[in-house]
Amino acid sequence: MSTILKVTSSFRGEASASNQLSDAIVNQLKVKDATATVIERDLVKEEVPHLDLNILMSFVTPEADRSEEQQNIVNQSDEFIKEVMAADAIVIGVPMYNFTIPSVLKSWLDQIARAGVTFKYTAEGAVGLVEGKEVYLAIATGGIYSEGPAAAVDFTESYLKAVLGFMGMTNVTAFRAEGMNIPEFAEKAVPNALAKVEEYSF
């Protein structure tokens, strides 16, 4: 039995294209393994705290020296990391806001990217410690960013592949519902993306 972690970050709820695309990916993964367990994290409802000095110091303070508040902060991060480590597949819903990912998704990444836990530094450089994961990005954008002139300002897929890869998650596949704010593309943006999910060999 496999485990699927679904992480969503859109404030649009059921109307969200990235959420619809995420659901479709999860459904296809469950076709592959009907017994799969799905863990869901809605980062908008969770209100994951943004990285600040208190959180950073909690992460770098040795366990024996942490205050109760610091330990509670680390415990929350540990819970997020535990879910990532337990997952065989990770599905991340990614609406583009101002050319990049939502701040709540960045906060989640800041919670799971921890030195000595999900990556480590060696004499040869950084080494990711989260391996063997299949990661799927469900990206939704108002314009066309996968190709053409606007590709230069797409900081969703490239950033996520970089930070996930830094932690060892290098098997990353992106699906896109794009052109949703362009009249000639809007109507078919989600159906085309869903069709690509159905065609993909998971």
UniProtKB/TrEMBL annotation:
Function field:
Quinone reductase that provides resistance to thiol-specific stress caused by electrophilic quinones. Also exhibits azoreductase activity. Catalyzes the reductive cleavage of the azo bond in aromatic azo compounds to the corresponding amines.
Similarity-based family: Belongs to the azoreductase type 1 family.
The subunit structure is:
Homodimer.
Could you tell me which PANTHER family the record lists for this protein?
FMN-DEPENDENT NADH-AZOREDUCTASE 1 (PTHR43741), FMN-DEPENDENT NADH:QUINONE OXIDOREDUCTASE (PTHR43741:SF4)
Its Enzyme Commission number?
Answer: 1.6.5.-, 1.7.1.17
Name the coenzymes or cofactors required: FMN
EC top class, in one word? oxidoreductase
Q: Which reaction does it catalyse?
A: 2 a quinone + NADH + H(+) = 2 a 1,4-benzosemiquinone + NAD(+); N,N-dimethyl-1,4-phenylenediamine + anthranilate + 2 NAD(+) = 2-(4-dimethylaminophenyl)diazenylbenzoate + 2 NADH + 2 H(+)
The keyword Oxidoreductase is annotated on this UniProt entry: yes
**What keyword terms does UniProt attach to this protein?**
Flavoprotein, FMN, NAD, Oxidoreductase
What is this protein identified as? Answer: FMN dependent NADH:quinone oxidoreductase
The organism named in the record is: Pustulibacterium marinum
- Residues that coordinate or bind FMN: 10, 16-18, 96-99
Q: Does the keyword Transmembrane helix apply?
A: no
Extent of the signal sequence: none
